[in-house]
Amino acid sequence: MALRYRRILLKLSGEALMGEGSYGIDRVTLDGMAAQVARTAALGVQIGIVIGGGNIFRGVSAGAAGMDRAQADYMGMLATVINALALQDALRRSGVDCRVQSALTIEQVAEPYIRGKALRYLEEGKVVIFAAGTGNPFFTTDTAAALRGAEMAADIVLKATKVDGVYSADPKKDPHANRYRTLTFDEAIGRNLGVMDATAFALCREQKLPVCVFSIFKPGALERVVRGEDEGTLVTVS
Ligand SMILES: Nc1ncnc2c1ncn2[C@@H]1O[C@H](COP(=O)(O)OP(=O)(O)OP(=O)(O)O)[C@@H](O)[C@H]1O
Ligand SMILES: O=c1ccn([C@@H]2O[C@H](COP(=O)(O)O)[C@@H](O)[C@H]2O)c(=O)[nH]1
């Protein structure tokens, strides 16, 4: 079947990496994510990945209460570097050629983020993992995904998370929440739908970069999304 999207920016949930656990990286879950990425890359899709850090540390979590916010955010960004290295390892074991570029300079473990080089890797069919978010405190990896998606001229930002789309309210808290099949950025921002932060939505809206929110736990979902099949929630300008 034909591909709908040839270049994607995939935002992988850090929190989802915990699997059934409450902290860190569950190897079975990690390998499952890597296998989905490997199958999608094999279809000929160019893939950039931003990975979250919520399984390890968030600057806004209870564990950071009382800390200097920027310092806590740098810790959160370093958490995403750990996840990026774990994902690179899993992807390599799945036979995927993969590079990590970090927005914070940590030369011994990852290349620095260089846009032109990242674009070349994508054109060569290599998966590029963008670590350390935007490199700036007070942001999130959702915003990093929107930013790198725009910089890479991706066709779409795919937010792979623990829920299977955008709901009228947080489905983890409200069992009566309804899932949207499609949504506009204005509606998502106006209704304060918390699945993705407003800064990320606003940047995607400005860049006319569609977003699809779907479950990373649903087998084959990523491949269905890149083929343009009905999966998750598609957020667009109009
Ligand atoms: N309206 C909504 N529709 C869907 N999910 C929502 C909504 N409001 C809040 N959520 C919550 O948002 C979560 C996903 O966003 P969040 O950024 O917290 O996690 P993530 O991106 O999966 O993790 P990480 O930041 O570690 O990468 C979902 O697990 C869901 O519980
Ligand atoms: O650009 C960024 C991206 C992330 N952070 C910090 O990292 C953590 C983890 O990222 P999540 O998006 O929550 O998974 C985040 O809470 C921030 O503390 C950042 O400062 N800048």
Automatic annotation (TrEMBL):
Domain (Aspartate/glutamate/uridylate kinase): residue spans on this chain: 7-215
Keywords: ATP-binding, Cytoplasm, Kinase, Nucleotide-binding, Pyrimidine biosynthesis, Transferase
Main subcellular localisation: cytoplasm
Activity regulation (UniProt): Inhibited by UTP.
One GO MF term attached to the UniProt entry: UMP kinase activity
E.C. designation(s): 2.7.4.22
Residues noted as binding UMP in the record, renumbered to the chain: G53, D73, T134, G135, N136, P137, F138, F139, T140, T141
Subcellular location: Cytoplasm
InterPro entries xref list: AceGlu_kinase-like_sf, Asp/Glu/Uridylate_kinase, Uridylate_kinase, Uridylate_kinase_bac
Binding positions for ATP per the UniProt entry: K11, L12, S13, G14, G54, R58, T161, Y167, D170
Catalytic reaction(s) noted: UMP + ATP = UDP + ADP
Pathway field: Pyrimidine metabolism; CTP biosynthesis via de novo pathway; UDP from UMP (UMPK route): step 1/1
One Pfam match: AA_kinase
Task performed by this protein: Catalyzes the reversible phosphorylation of UMP to UDP.
Family: Belongs to the UMP kinase family.
Assembly description: Homohexamer.
Official protein name in the record: Uridylate kinase
Species: Thiobacter aerophilum
Taxonomic lineage from the root: Bacteria, Pseudomonadati, Pseudomonadota, Betaproteobacteria, Burkholderiales
